[in-house]
């Protein structure tokens, strides 16, 4: 497994805005990508990662919302995920993103969604998501469509967030 570079909005906005394409087959090459993505996500550390965040525009997500020192790791893999239905009830959560480092803001999304996806072995699955799982899967599916969580904020907040990430990147480069 290899830790890959994560694209960030200061330098890679155009790549992050791409729409990812569906996966044709869940094979060993795709599993190798998912293994790399998981290791990259744990290293960052984060709780979810879409393939486009490591520069691969395919519809693949890895996630581990149970990650922590006290809980055992529970890695999850979602290939070609789709939201089949969403609740009218909404839920607000303070989100962050490895591609928008150090920025956190509240986003409102449906509280529950029903998902369909292929798992690590290419098996078709359907599942209901709620709470942090629902937040995370909606955030990651947004990535597959070229949408970042800051796109859900006002234009002023979004521009301010990107400027902040650019400034931090430049300060790091000058240091
Ligand atoms: Ni993200």
Description:
It is a single chain. This protein has a single domain, classed as Peptide Deformylase (Alpha-Beta Complex), CATH 3.90.45. The strands form two sheets. It has a five-stranded antiparallel β-sheet with strand order 1-2-3-6-7. Strands 4-5 form a two-stranded antiparallel ribbon. The chain is an alpha+beta fold and 175 residues long. The protein contains four helices and seven strands, in the order H-H-E-E-E-E-E-E-E-H-H. 33% of the residues lie in helices and 25% in strands. The model has no long low-confidence stretch (mean pLDDT 95). The structure holds nickel (II) ion. Nickel (II) ion (NI) binds next to helix 3.
Give descriptors for this structure.
alpha+beta, five-stranded antiparallel beta sheet, binds nickel (II) ion, Peptide Deformylase, 7 strands, two-stranded antiparallel sheet, 175 residues
List the helices and strands and how they pair.
Layout lengths: L8 H8 L11 H16 L4 E3 L9 E4 L12 E11 L3 E6 L9 E6 L1 E7 L5 E7 H14 L10 H20 L1
Antiparallel strand pairs: 1-2, 2-3, 3-6, 4-5, 6-7
Bound molecules: nickel (II) ion (NI).
């Amino acid at each position: 497994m290899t830790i890959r570079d994560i694209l960030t909005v200061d330098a890679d906005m155009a790549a992050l805005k791409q729409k990812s394409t569906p996966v044709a087959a869940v094979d060993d090459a795709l599993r190798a990508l998912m293994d790399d993505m998981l290791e990259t996500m744990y290293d960052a550390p984060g709780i979810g990662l879409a393939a486009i965040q490591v520069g691969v525009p395919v519809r693949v997500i890895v996630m581990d919302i149970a990650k922590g020192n006290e809980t055992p790791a529970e890695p999850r893999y979602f290939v070609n995920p789709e939201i089949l239905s969403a609740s009218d009830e909404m839920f607000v959560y303070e989100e962050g993103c490895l591609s928008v480092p150090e920025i956190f803001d509240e986003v409102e999304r449906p509280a529950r969604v029903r998902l369909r996806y292929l798992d690590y072995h290419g098996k078709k699955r359907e599942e209901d998501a709620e709470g942090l799982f629902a937040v995370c899967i909606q955030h990651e599916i947004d990535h597959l469509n070229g949408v970042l969580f800051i796109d859900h904020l006002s234009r002023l907040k979004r521009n301010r967030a990107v400027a902040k990430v650019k400034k931090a990147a430049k300060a790091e480069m000058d240091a």
